[in-house]
Amino acid sequence: MKLVSLAVGLGLSATAVLIVPGSGATASMPTGVVVDKARPVANKYLQQKLNWRRCGDEELRTFCTKIAAPRDWANQYAGTDIELAVSKVAPERGKPSRVVFGNPGGPGGAGLGMAPYLASQEPLAKNHLAIGFDPRGSGESTNVTCQGAPGYSMDARDRDPWNLDLISQASKLAQPYCDRQSRGLLPYVTTAQTVQDMDLIRQLLGFDKIDFVGYSGGTWMGAYYQTYFPQHVGRFVLDSNTDFTSPWISTFAEQPAAFQRRFQQDFATWAAKYDDKLHLGMTSREVVRNYERLRAALKKQPAVEEFLEASVRITYDQNTLDDMVSGDLYTKLDFYSLALDLAFLRDLSETQTKGGARAAQRLVDGLSPARQQELVRRAHRSTVGLPAVGLSALGDDYEDATFTAITCNDTAWPQGREYADQLAGHLGPRNPLIGWSMNENPCFYWNRPQLNLPQPTGAGLPTTLMVQSQNDPATSYTLAAAAHHRYAGSRLLTITGEGDHGVYGGVNKCADRIINAFLTTGKTPAADVSCRGEGIPAPSTPEPINHEGGEAAAGSPLRRVAGFTAALSGYLH
């Protein structure tokens, strides 16, 4: 297989055909499909009355409601409505003159917490009505689910034909499980439908234009809202950008290199700098080599341990390790926790090798209850922001199912196992952290709806402010810069020497000043601009406990949003 054919395949425009020579795999749009467009809203949806009620603690000042929307915006009189959960926080004094919507990404991330999160940004809180919502398919809105679908428990690096067969079979089975359990909604969980849901919310709130803050997969949503409803676009901030000017596969195919860069250049270099405290290796290369040794040991002999007086059992194998490492690269605030966990797993594996399973369990039993609780929490937490393809836990809940539906439904993917395996084989050797798992994706076998999204170009829009850190693992800076150059009138704010995914709201003071000025006054940078990163904090004592939304996560915007969302959940039942 010539590398040039894959390189050509990954540099697509949204209307191109993706081909792997000799594979027969293509990703062209079905012939005769018309480009989708915005549709007028039927009066029955515009005339509904909103019943706002307090959700969450009183100090959050948040009110929530549910609104009715058509399952399919192209068939508004079919009688198959869905519910959308919406949250709002008004200024403490006076009537707001502007409204700001927020989305935490995913795509498919529950977003009720965006309202109190945006309202916690003091400059915004003075004059903006802050709005969050759970996108269709997710959260408190009408859900989709893939529960029971086979997961990817195999080792992605194993290239034996039988293992590749298992990966392919699991991927093929995803859509039947998702479709059967989602009561006909699955084909309509798309960005095209979601942005029309957004505009219905806008109309019901009575605003002519909306401002917007979208993180990660929310940048895709924001760009498509601008494309569908340019006349209602206010000040849009797209933070940690997907390549919304190209198909979804372009964004995901760049993740392996971005995650590897973040792991080696940021985490491993930081860990080596503090080797006297962390003991993971004296150089970046040594840290990476020790990770590879630990991975091989856990594959050969997984550690199955009981925590919290045998109430929780965790299996530590090579996949657990990969998920743990990749999940902790989104924010530098997790680096110390990752270092502690790597040291714990190294000791656990060595103890098991020398003394057997009982000795390993005694090591776990000797940990403090607080440390055990932290290990359990981290083993079961979800990814913040755009997950790496192949590492999301398909079928666990509505966010995963919505993520799968949107990324597989929106834009065409090359179809077939041969392309998927070749892509993983191409990306894996240089980017082993997640590159080998690129074939673990249902989209390569997905039967898409007859949908052709209009390509976002930025033409005729007000200035869009794009924000991007240089070593973002989930959304590659290279692709963000390319999307910026293709998106007319956009400005790019680059955070140099930084790799956090999700910037606005506590990661960088310089960036926050520029973004707040843009959102509150409309002041736009005259040209592309940059801010210097504020560095990775030294290992702290005592051990950090980064509970979602908690004090230790104050500099992690997406964790804070997740914490707010959790605080609002259940109030609309």
Can you give a write-up of this model?
The protein is α/β, with parallel strands linked by helices and 573 residues long. The chain is built from 20 helices and 12 strands. The chain has a 10-stranded mixed β-sheet, with helices on both faces. Strand 8 and strand 9 form a beta hairpin. Helix 6 packs across helix 7 and helix 11 packs across helix 13. The radius of gyration is 23 Å and the shape is globular. The N and C termini lie far apart (54 Å). The N terminus is likely disordered.
What's the short story on this structure?
By secondary structure, the chain is α/β, with parallel strands linked by helices. It has helices spanning 3-9, 43-46, 114-119, 122-125, 161-181, 191-205, 217-228, 248-253, 255-273, 275-278, 284-300, 318-327, 335-355, 357-365, 369-380, 398-409, 417-427, 477-486, 509-521, 557-568; strands spanning 53-54, 63-70, 81-89, 98-103, 128-134, 210-215, 233-239, 303-307, 312-316, 464-469, 491-496, 529-532. The strands form two sheets. The protein has a ten-stranded mixed sheet, sandwiched between helices.
Defining key terms:
20 helices, disordered N terminus, 39% helix, alpha/beta, two-stranded antiparallel sheet, 573 residues, ten-stranded mixed sheet, single chain
